[in-house]
């Protein structure tokens, strides 16, 4: 009994499969017609309707600063990295400057469209940044890409300059505060010297080095030998404080002078280096036209077979 049921099931499956093949074979003309139409549509779309697209690419890298004795430049070098540059590439301020460029004819572009068109990526395990863009005009997309890089470097320099002004102001305030403390320490010494009959302590500026120096002469050293123990301790304490404040002032002034000499545009130019500019390439992007036709073939076959089965079902249920 079980064997008969199994044979019956196999027979039913053979009949069902045979019916499917017969339905497809009977509707071969419809399937062929729909498939040919789908191929023709994909052919016309691929070769006549799709606009030719071009692609351009530029690359840049981040170089660490080679200046070792300028603490301010080392500070900026530590905060300028690939991620910061990539963020600035799509900064609305940067793209707004690109759109305003009169030679680019970017009237039809918006900040959002530029953000979507520019593809900014960083290569793995390196500080090399790739900037590519696709469009219908190879010259325009190359110019826009290069202009974006230029505007990014300009914006980085402007941001750095604002930060540099704050740092210079901090150095200047620190220098003035330390000078006041130094003047107070010298006044304390001069008050002490009147009691001890010492020469006036002179603090003079070295014009070439821009530093303050204390005057020490043989007359002062000779008179120190005649001090009692208490006066010698007092003198050592005062002069040690004066020397300490002098060194602090000279250090602050050196940093102040270094910061004033920094050219932010030059720093960015040295650190954000363009390896290759975007070029206007005549070769269009491969648009996989044959793939589009193959997709049209598959879709045509699927649609044709579907139409045939629906047609057969409609006929069978109408009887």
Architecture overview:
The protein has helices at 2-26, 28-49, 71-79, 82-89, 92-99, 111-117, 138-196, 218-224, 229-260, 264-271, 289-318, and strands at 54-62, 118-122, 128-135, 203-206, 211-214, 272-276. The protein is α+β, with helices and mostly antiparallel strands and 319 residues long. It folds into 3 domains: 2-50 and 287-318, no CATH class; 54-163 and 263-276, Bacterial polysaccharide co-polymerase-like, CATH 3.30.1890.10; 170-260, no CATH class. The strands form 2 sheets. A 4-stranded antiparallel beta sheet has the order 2-3-1-6. Strands 4-5 form a two-stranded antiparallel sheet. The longest helix has 59 residues, at 138-196. The two termini are 36 Å apart. The relative contact order is 0.17.
Give the arrangement of secondary structure elements.
Blueprint (H helix, E strand, L loop, with lengths): L1 H25 L1 H22 L4 E9 L8 H9 L2 H8 L2 H8 L11 H7 E5 L5 E8 L2 H59 L6 E4 L4 E4 L3 H7 L4 H32 L3 H8 E5 L12 H30 L1
Antiparallel strand pairs: 1-3, 1-6, 2-3, 4-5
Helix pairs in contact: 2-11, 5-6, 5-7, 7-9, 7-10
């Amino acid at each position: 009994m079980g064997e008969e049921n199994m044979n019956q099931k196999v027979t039913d499956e053979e009949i069902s499969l045979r019916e499917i093949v017969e339905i497809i074979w009977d509707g071969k003309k419809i399937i062929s017609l729909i498939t040919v139409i789908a191929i023709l549509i994909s052919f016309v779309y691929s070769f006549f309707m799709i606009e030719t697209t071009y692609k351009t690419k530029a690359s840049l890298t981040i170089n660490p600063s080679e200046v070792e004795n300028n603490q301010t430049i080392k500070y900026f070098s530590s905060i300028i990295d690939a991620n910061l540059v990539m963020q600035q590439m799509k900064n609305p301020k940067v793209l707004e400057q690109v759109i305003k460029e009169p030679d680019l004819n970017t009237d039809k572009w918006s900040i959002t469209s530029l953000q979507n068109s520019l593809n900014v990526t960083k290569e793995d395990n390196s500080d090399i940044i790739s900037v590519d863009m696709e469009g219908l005009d190879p010259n325009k997309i190359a110019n826009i890409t290069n202009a974006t890089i230029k505007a990014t470097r300009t914006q980085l320099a402007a941001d750095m300059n604002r930060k540099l002004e704050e740092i210079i102001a901090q150095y200047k305030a620190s220098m003035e505060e330390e000078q006041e403390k130094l003047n107070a320490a010298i006044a304390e010494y001069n008050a002490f010297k009147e009691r001890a009959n010492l020469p006036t302590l002179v603090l003079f500026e070295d014009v070439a080095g821009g530093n303050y120096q204390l005057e020490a002469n043989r007359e002062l050293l000779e008179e120190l030998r005649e001090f009692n123990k208490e006066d010698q301790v007092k003198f050592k304490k005062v002069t040690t404080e004066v020397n300490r404040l002098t060194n602090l002032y000279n250090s602050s002034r050196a940093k102040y002078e270094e910061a004033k000499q920094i050219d932010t545009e030059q720093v960015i130019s040295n650190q954000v280096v363009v390896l290759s500019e975007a070029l206007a390439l005549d070769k269009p992007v491969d648009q996989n036209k044959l793939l589009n036709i193959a997709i049209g073939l598959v879709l045509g076959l699927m649609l044709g077979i579907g139409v045939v089965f629906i047609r057969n079902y409609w006929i069978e249920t109408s009887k």
